[in-house]
Structure formats: C-alpha cells, structure tokens
Amino acid sequence: PDYTPGKRVEVEYEISQSEDEEGKCRIFLAGRTCPFDDVEKALALNTLAMALAGSNEAPLKRALLDSGLCEDVTLHVNDGLYHGFFELDIYNVKREKVDTVIELAKETLTKVYKNGLDKDRLHALFNSAEFKHRERDYGSMPKGLIFGLTMLDTWLWDGDPAAGLDLTDSFAKLRASIDKGYFEELLHEVFIKNAPVELLLVPSKTLGQRREAEVAAHLAEIKSKMTADELARIAEETAALKAWQAREDSPEAIATLPTLSASDIDPKAERVPTELKEVSGTPCYSFTLPTSGITYLDLYFDASDLTADELLLLPTLTTLFKNVKTENYSVSGLKNKLLSEIGTLSFNPIAISTVDGAAKAYIVVNASALDEKREEIAKLLPEIIYTSELADKTELRRIISQSKISAEEAFIGAGHAQALTRASAYIMPAAAIDEHLSGYEQYAYISKLDKSFDFECDKLTEKLVILADKIFRRERVTLAITSQSDAADFRDSLIAAIKDGGQAAGASPIKPLGKKNEGIVIPSQVSYAVTVSDAFMGRETNGSRLVIRSIISYSHLWNAVRVLGGAYGSGLIARRNGTVAYYS
After folding, report:
1. Are 410 and 439 in contact (CB under 8 A)?
2. Which among 193, 182, 158 has a CA at the least distance from the CA of 43?
3. Measuring CA to CA, how many Å separate 509 from each of 303, 422, 445, 554?
4. Are the CB atoms for 495 and 280 separated by under 8 Å?
5. How does pLDDT run across 183-193, given as a tens digit for each residue?
6. Element containing residue 203 per DSSP (H, E)
7. pTM for the structure as a whole
8. How far apart are CA 435 and CA 422, in angstroms?
9. What's the rounded Cα separation, in Å, for the pair 560 and 568?
C-alpha cells in the first residue's frame, strides 16, 4: 500500500556462462494507477499504454529504440488488484547508460503530454478494443472461465462482480473524451506527476553458484545447531508427510469433486455446415455459423517445399508485415487503418503433420472484420503482402533483437514447451519444421544474426523479398471463410487480388533430426525434462488414448512426480499423430 516515489533498488539476475554481461541491464519503472473499482479508468489506462508503447512506432517506445540505448520496451497496466500499477520494462541497457535511458523515458512522456497524443491512434485503439469486447473470442479458453476471472477483479475486494463484464458505455464515454484532453491529463497524472519506483536488474554469471553455496551453508549452519532428537523428529515428520501424500483419497473425499457423467454429454458430434468450392483453381471452404455479424478469414499459403535455411526466415518475414510501411501507408497510418477497419489480422508460420505422417508448413493469415467492413480485408491484405518495405533495415534490426529476447524468455518461462518441440523433432518431420520456426534452431539462427546483422543485412533483405514472392501465390493458397451471411463476393475479390503465376508447393525436404540425448543450458532455477516416443504412429487414432493420458497424468504422475517428488509439474501428452511425450 505504501511506496517511496523515485526509490531505486538494484539486484542481480542470472545469465548463462556463454552470455556477455555488457549491455544486459534491465530497467523496470513502476507506479500506481487506479483502485480496483475504477474499471473505466483502468480501460483508459490500458488504451493509453498501447498508444504510448504498444508498437515500435508508438512515441515512447520509438524514442527509446531510436536512441540505440536499449533493444526492447514494453508497457503494461496491471489491474484487478486492490490498487493497480503500471510497469515500464526496458531491456538490455549498458550499466553506464541506465540514468540516461530513464531520463529519456521521462522526457519523452513529458513531450507527449505537452504536444498531445495521436488522436487518430486513440480512436483506432478504441475501435479495436470494442471489436474484441463484442467478439468475446478467447481462443482455447472457455468464455465462462474468462467471465469468472473478470468478475473476481472487483468481487475480491467487495466490489460489483458485474462491473467489468459489459464496457459498452465506458467505450462510448472514453471515445468522446479523446478530443477533450482527458488522455493527456491521465498521462500526466499517472506517468509524470509522481516519480516511478525504479528496479535495476544487473546481469551476473556467478549468481547461481553463489546462491546455491549460500543456501547450502545456511542449511549446514541450521543442522549443526540441532540435537539428535530434533533431527529424528524432522525425519519422522517427513516420513509422515510422505505417507499422507501417498495415501489414497477416501470415497467420501472423492465424492465431493464435481464430475460429469456420460449422460451429460451429447453422444452426437457437432457438424459444421461446410461447402467446398474451387474458385480460379483455389480450394475455398465456407462455414455458415452464427458469428454475431463478424466474418472470419483463414488463408493457408503452402510453404512445405522450403529448405531449412528458408524456414528460418519465415518468422522474421511474418513479423515484418504490419510493422513496415507499404506503398500507400506509413507504419502508423497502416496500423491505425487496421485497428479502425479490421478486427484482427495476423501472419503466423506453422507446421502440421498429415494423417500419413508427412510434414506440411504454412504461413497462415487470420483475419476478421464486421460483415459490413470485410471488403477492407480484401483491400489491405494484398497491400501488405505485396508492397511492404521488407528492406527496412532499421525495423529489421529491431525485430531480430526483440525476437532473440522473446526466445530467451520462452526457454526460461516455458521450457517444457520448447523441450517438447526439440525432442519431437528427433522423430517427427513436422516437429523438425517447428524447430526451425520457433524452437532452438530458430533461436540459434536469430542469435547469430543478431551478432552479424551489419554484415548479413543486405543478403537477408534480398532473401526475404524472394521468399515472399515465392510463397504468396494463388497456386499455394487454400481459403476458408466463416460467416453467417453470404460471402461469395468477398471471397472472389480476395482471390482475384492474390497473384498467380507461381508454383504449387512440393513435398517437404525436412527430415527428423535423429534420436539423441541432449541438454540445453538456461540461466534458471527451474529445469525442464521431456522424453518423446513414436509408440502409436501409423495406428488408427482413437479416444481411449486421451482417457489413458488423463489417468496417467492425474492419477499417477501428478502424485508421484509433483506431490511426492516436488516438481512444479508433470504430465503425459498423447497427440493424434501417434507420438506420446512425458514432461516434468
């Protein structure tokens, strides 16, 4: 509840022995925002944070990146707490430049306050946020769960549980306040008026070893002062704890758990109305469903015939889209147009395994818009994929540095997922493709590129242009549209805008990496382990594997490895392609 504005704390953080400590300081600035029950202000602050640092061309992030003193910048607003706070994270700064960077951040915020925010950008951000609020698409997360978590943001503190469920009125009110200076005053109140607290993380190659030695010495000192009876008592209590953990739950305890019975589940599989039609040689799928007046588009551009070196380029290529200027739009103009007119637009390289085990690679374009605005997708998508300035060396340099930082964070925070991809790549061609797109192979490539960018830059941009021209062709695309209304005209105009004259993709040349035992060193207190088997490959898929997976994961592994063994987590994964994996 209490803090001292302007206070600085310095602590070390661990890096690996192979990393260079130079230029690896991390700065975190934080300050108060608003109490839990001011949902409207929290919405305004989240939008303001996006306007200030939500993309590389946003004013705060652009000023810090353009200075060359850091490699990435993020700004988060944390609400759902009794009193919320903001957090400005600045990555990879030289120790002697820390004060300069902090002062530049403060000066930039003051300059934006005095000169005013980009009003078009704010309107566009609110349009996008309101679209997502109306759409209520939470991916794989059930809506009811998200609603429940949203209610807890206020209910936990005796506030109105429904306060955050419907923000329609708040959107209207805040949008009307854009031209009245409200957001400039909010910027001053939260980010300028009170000095933020400062946390400086300083890299250390020896912190891990020192920490282990300190813990060992501390425990040895405690043990040396204990009597034989005290040691025996600890041993007895530990044995009793393990016996309690291993004991079967009583029928009465199990009966308290909520469960579903077979009669609660409809035995008939849901069938989605589907139409397949070929238009100008392009397979087009149409799915008619109630979509609340929103049209969803999926374009799969086949990239299966790419070599390993070409696959390594795809994440950089797809990240450049929407982040560089096009023939008719500046970067900020393009982003404002997308936010205002389109619900979502994303480019993602993926790998899948076919029923017979063959590997396929795609660049998937996902887009959505209100039915009355879906033609904007047909106009803007070709603009982006065919006229983006892929030779923008400044943005390319930033993307590579930011991708490297994100990959390092993924290995530390979600190492089991990275290990699963790596181990699966030993035996699965599709997983080997994934390794080149998002795994250790991609990280090794992007790290090398980060160090030799000036030397490689011209060759890299040339390769990206050639690769984009090869992939984004009508001969390589499969289209799918989901809508509640007839979208034939939209479909036809979109296909007509995709260039033809290319070659259909051939078979993938990527092979499994070969079975091996391997370790990857990460600077973390937590280790991740995965083993993968092709036990069911080539066999018909059936639902019993999913049941077995649940039994083994929750009845055995959870208790044996997590509860008794003390691991943070463990489980068995059974995939439809026939592979199984254990992780902990």
Report:
1. no
2. 182
3. 11, 18, 19, 39
4. yes
5. 999 999 999 99
6. strand 197-204
7. 0.88
8. 6
9. 12
